[in-house]
Design a protein that fits this description.
The protein has one domain: 3-Layer(aba) Sandwich (Rossmann fold). Helix content is 42%, strand content 21%. It contains twelve helices and eight strands. Helix 7 packs antiparallel against helix 8. The mean pLDDT is 96. It binds S-adenosylmethionine. S-adenosylmethionine (SAM) binds next to helix 1 and helix 7.
Length: 277
């Protein structure tokens, strides 16, 4: 196990019993994914499915002919499917799969021991490759609160003070967006769900009602108060500006934010939904 996968497994173990806390968030994510299906023969792939606390698997299997769940933490996927007691051939789990291909390399870095330029170059070269995900292409490809974790992996290994931190962050983000688009079939849909900011730095989230969230979240974004690398305005513009992505995109929208209440912390979350040509 790498340091990054160990950390993710520990977090998943800590939130495994949070099924009830996830209820409102689960119904938002599930409804968004159900609404993205256009035909009974559609297939869905969810990256970062983890404990599946944010996915109502039964409802998804009612909307999709097949569902593939993928995560670096295979044990979380197994536990998640057991919790929901769904054992169907058309529900498939791909566990112990690193969507970046650099978790091993990054796990060898530490913010306290500066990483050499050669190692950063190796990492950047690897991030030019898009990992081959089994089972694709899919009608709908979703990433569920995974991007912030991929970026946090860079923070905890290379470290923000490293002179090339931003190079690696932007490369990991670009690779993730490309992976989502490449994994989707022509005419398919990409749903990038991302946490934006939490009540740790935006305490108004705790008392807020849903109607106030767009204002609160825009205020936080304008004040540069959001998780590094996941500003939805920037994500949307990357999809529209980067030629390898924009050439495949028909339309793109950003949903209104919603709240993901995880007990001690509240997270504002939204989705960027890209419909492909
Ligand atoms: C915030 S959680 C998403 C919540 C999760 N769907 C649930 O209901 O428990 C992010 C997920 O991304 C997974 N993950 C993090 N880094 C990954 C990587 N490099 N490759 C694949 N999955 C990764 C974690 O193991 C975790 O399950």
């Amino acid at each position: 196990m790498t340091r990054i996968s160990e950390l993710q497994s520990k977090r998943n173990a800590d939130s495994r019993e949070a099924w009830d806390d996830f209820a409102a968030h689960r119904s938002r994510v599930t409804a968004l994914l159900q609404g993205s299906a256009t035909s009974a023969s559609d297939s869905l792939c969810v990256l970062g499915a983890g404990n599946c606390n944010d996915l109502d698997l039964k409802a998804l299997l009612a909307s999709y002919a097949s569902v593939q769940l993928l995560d670096i933490d295979g044990a979380a996927l197994t536990a998640g499917m057991h919790r929901q007691s769904i054992f169907l051939d058309r529900l498939r789990a791909v566990g112990d799969f690193d969507v970046t291909g650099v978790s091993q390399l990054l796990s060898e870095c530490s913010p306290t021991t500066p990483t050499s330029s050669a190692d950063v170059d190796r990492c950047l070269n690897q991030l030019k490759q898009i990992p081959e995900i089994p089972g694709g292409p899919f009608s709908v490809v979703a990433s569920v609160c995974l991007l912030s974790q991929l970026i946090e992996g860079v923070v905890l290994t290379l470290g923000e003070p490293h002179s090339r931190f931003l190079d690696v962050l932007t490369a990991i983000r670009r690779q993730h967006l490309k992976l989502l688009v490449e994994l989707a079939s022509p005419g398919g849909v990409v749903v990038l769900v991302t946490d934006i900011v939490s009540s740790a730095t935006c305490p108004q989230l705790v008392q807020s009602i849903e109607a106030d969230l767009p204002r609160i979240v825009s205020g936080a974004i304008n004040a540069r108060n959001f998780f590094t690398g996941v500003n939805p305005v920037v994500l949307r513009s990357l999809f529209s500006r980067e030629p390898s992505l924009s050439s495949r995109i028909q339309s793109i929208e950003v949903t209104n934010p919603w709240l993901w209440n995880l007990g001690p912390r509240h997270y504002a979350v939204c989705a960027i939904v890209a419909r492909l040509k």
